[in-house]
Amino acid sequence: MSEIIAFTKNNADFLLKEALKGREKIELSLNLGKNKQVVDIVQGFVIPKQGEKHKFALEKLQKLKENTIYTIENQKVLAVELFSKESNLYYKLRPTKDWPTLMLSSVPMHRFITSTPKLDTESKINSIKPIKGKVLDTCCGLGYTAIMLAKNGAESVTCFEKDPFVLDICKYNPYSLELFTNKKITLINENVFQGIKKLESETFDRIIHDPPTISFAKELYSVEFYKELHRVLKKDGKLYHYAPNPKKTKGAEFWKTMIKILKNAGFKNVDYYKKSSGIVAKK
Ligand SMILES: C[S@@+](CC[C@H](N)C(=O)[O-])C[C@H]1O[C@@H](n2cnc3c(N)ncnc32)[C@H](O)[C@@H]1O
After folding, report:
1. Is the CB of 144 inside a 6 Å radius of any atom of ligand 1?
2. Ligand 1 pocket residue status of 87, Cβ below 6 Å
């Protein structure tokens, strides 16, 4: 899985340009900047270090789209995107200035214009520092929060993702792969609204609740769910809850409503932080 190939139109254009100059060995990244490798150009084919099985024709790189990530499967160049009739959603991995974001029917799952997915993840985690003990990550997405938690002090991370197609997309993202290999992370492919009811009370030292915007997951903003978050949090635990701003254009501040509901569910010291676009609360 660590050998996954992922690249953008920029990488492809660079390969084409260098190959046109007659270069037989070209150094570039085929995993979105994680590291570089030297590929061989042989008779119009690119042969990466992953081997002949992953070779691809240079001519297939000619008409690639912007804002898209490509992989190689059975020597074919394929965009990392899919539509599911089951969920009626279109899934797409989209490049940004650092780590890719996931687009669910054109809605990005990370801030990538005013911030970047990497900085966005860091600011979420930093708002409930120090990270320690058992951590619950309610909405896995591309696994950035789960991976960063596991690398920055968590003893264990329990991570829910309800959508199997999102997990399929993760398998093509070099920055998500640790989700499947880091032994501290337990990944549960289940709706957290139901799954949380099976967890014991006062289990977690920290909770990251990073749901999609309310139109995708209304129940994850309900008092019923917040009561469950409160129940599974330890007495001195901390919650970070991402606060979207669905009515920004109309001037309404949705986080104020969220604060009221969190207080109704029993949370204390409930404060909104603009920098991380989220609410931090204690038990
Ligand atoms: C904003 S993204 C999370 C981003 C994530 N923190 C990361 O590091 O990439 C929200 C994710 O929650 C998932 N989701 C939505 N409703 C859910 C539910 N009820 N239970 C579990 N996951 C859910 C979506 O499929 C989506 O992948």
Report:
1. yes
2. no
